[in-house]
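Example S7 (C-alpha cells).
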C-alpha cells in the first residue's frame, strides 16, 4: 500500500513539473484549397460570342465623311459580307474616326467571369497592298460610360504584316486597360474601334473565343542599333544610310537621282533638277532615316549638332536656294530651314563645291524632337544642284 502511494505521487509530480506539453487533437489538420472555377465549354452559356458576322444591324459609323468611308462589302472572309473601311485622321476637319458594335441587340454583356480566358478574334486584310500595322484602338464601353482600351500592335497578328490575304488577329481581354476609365466588365454596352493614322481594310467574323496564352516564337528579332545621336551620322554619300531613303523620282516636276557626273567625295552625288512653276506638283521632296525607321530622340543634342553637306549649283551663282532641309516626326509634323547665304561658305552658291552647315538650333520647334522619323528635304520654284556627303555632325 505504501509503495502504491509513492508511485501515484511520482506520477503526479512528473505531470506537474515535467516538460510535457499537451496539444488539442484534431481529426484533420490539412489546408482547405479553393476549388478552381470550371468554365463552360461554350462561351454562349455566358455571353453572346458573335460580335459581327453577316448582320450590321448593331453597327454604327457606316458612313462617309471627311474622316472615313465605312460600308458593307461583298469581299468576305466567310459568308457574303464584310466591313469595308477607308480612313485618314490627318484629313482637314477630321476630329474622330471609327465604328462601334453593340452586339446582341445592345443588351448588357457580362464579361467579368471570362476576362482572363477569352479574346476578341477578327479577320482582317488590306484593300490593296501591305500595311505593317493596324492602327486600331479597341475600346470596350459599359452602360455607365466606363471604358477599357487596347491598341492592336503587331504581336496580336497571325503574320508580321497586314496584306491582301485574310489573317486572324486575336486580342486577349486580359490585355485591356480597364482601371483608368473604370470599366465595369459585367455590363458591357459595345465594342468601339477607333481608327488612328490612315488605312484601308476589310474586317470580318469578329467574335469572342476562348484564349490560352501560348509560348510564342518571335517572327523577328529586335536589331541592336548603334546610338542614332552619336556623331557623326552619315545620311547619304554614295547611297542613303542603310538604304533607308526615298524620293528618287523622275516626273514632269522633278528629277532626283544618283549621279557620277559631279562628286565632292566618293563615286556618286545626288542630282536634283526641278521646276514647279505653273505646274501641279504636289510633293517635291525626299527623305532618309539614319536609324532604320526607329524614332530618334534628339532633344539632348539640339544645341550641339548641325546638318553639314557639300553643294554645287548648275549654270548660275545665287545667294539663296529654294531648298529647305530639316526633320519630320512620326506625327507627320515638319521643321524645315531654307538654304540662305548665311549657311554656306563664301556667302553664295555657285558652280564650285561649297560646304553648307546648318545648326539644329536654327530649326523651328515645329516637330516633336523626341520622336523624329527622318531627315526631310523639299524643293520649290526652279533649280538644279548636286548634293554630296550629307551628314549630321557635332561641334558648334
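Recovered sequence:
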Amino acid at each position: 500500500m505504501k509503495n502504491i502511494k509513492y508511485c501515484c505521487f511520482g506520477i503526479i509530480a512528473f505531470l506537474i513539473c515535467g516538460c510535457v506539453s499537451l496539444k488539442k487533437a484534431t481529426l484533420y489538420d490539412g489546408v482547405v484549397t479553393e476549388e478552381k472555377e470550371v468554365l463552360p465549354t461554350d462561351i454562349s452559356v455566358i455571353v453572346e460570342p458573335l460580335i459581327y458576322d453577316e448582320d450590321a444591324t448593331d453597327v454604327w459609323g457606316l458612313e462617309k465623311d471627311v474622316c472615313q468611308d465605312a460600308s458593307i462589302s461583298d469581299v468576305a472572309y466567310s459568308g457574303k459580307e464584310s466591313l469595308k473601311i477607308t480612313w485618314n485622321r490627318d484629313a482637314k476637319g477630321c476630329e474622330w474616326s471609327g465604328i462601334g458594335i453593340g452586339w446582341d441587340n445592345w443588351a448588357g454583356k457580362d464579361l467579368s467571369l471570362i476576362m482572363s480566358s477569352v479574346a476578341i478574334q477578327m479577320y482582317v486584310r488590306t484593300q490593296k497592298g501591305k500595311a505593317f500595322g493596324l492602327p486600331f484602338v479597341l475600346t470596350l464601353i459599359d452602360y455607365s460610360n466606363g471604358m477599357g482600351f487596347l491598341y492592336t500592335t503587331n504581336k496580336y497578328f497571325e503574320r508580321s504584316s497586314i496584306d491582301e490575304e485574310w489573317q486572324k488577329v486575336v486580342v486577349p481581354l486580359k490585355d485591356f486597360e480597364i482601371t483608368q476609365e473604370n470599366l465595369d466588365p459585367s455590363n458591357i454596352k459595345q465594342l468601339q474601334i477607333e481608327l488612328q493614322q490612315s488605312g484601308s481594310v476589310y474586317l470580318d467574323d469578329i467574335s469572342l473565343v476562348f484564349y490560352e496564352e501560348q509560348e510564342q516564337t518571335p517572327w523577328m528579332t529586335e536589331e541592336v542599333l548603334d546610338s542614332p545621336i552619336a556623331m557623326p551620322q552619315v545620311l547619304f554619300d554614295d547611297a542613303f544610310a542603310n538604304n533607308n531613303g526615298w524620293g528618287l523620282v523622275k516626273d514632269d516636276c522633278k528629277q532626283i537621282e544618283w549621279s557620277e557626273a559631279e562628286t565632292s567625295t566618293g563615286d556618286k552625288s545626288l542630282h536634283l533638277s526641278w521646276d514647279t512653276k505653273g505646274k501641279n506638283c504636289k510633293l517635291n521632296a525626299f527623305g532618309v532615316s539614319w536609324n532604320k525607321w526607329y524614332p530618334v530622340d534628339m532633344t539632348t543634342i539640339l544645341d550641339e549638332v548641325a546638318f553639314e553637306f557639300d553643294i554645287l549649283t548648275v549654270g548660275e551663282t545665287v545667294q539663296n536656294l529654294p531648298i529647305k532641309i530639316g526633320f519630320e516626326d512620326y506625327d507627320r509634323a515638319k521643321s524645315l530651314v531654307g538654304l540662305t547665304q548665311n549657311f554656306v561658305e563664301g556667302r553664295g552658291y555657285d558652280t564650285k563645291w561649297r560646304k553648307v552647315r546648318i545648326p539644329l538650333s536654327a530649326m523651328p520647334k515645329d516637330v516633336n524632337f523626341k520622336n523624329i522619323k527622318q531627315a526631310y528635304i523639299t524643293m520649290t520654284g526652279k533649280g538644279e544642284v548636286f548634293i554630296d556627303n550629307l551628314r549630321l555632325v557635332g561641334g558648334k
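Notes on this example. The chain is about 5% helix and 40% strand.
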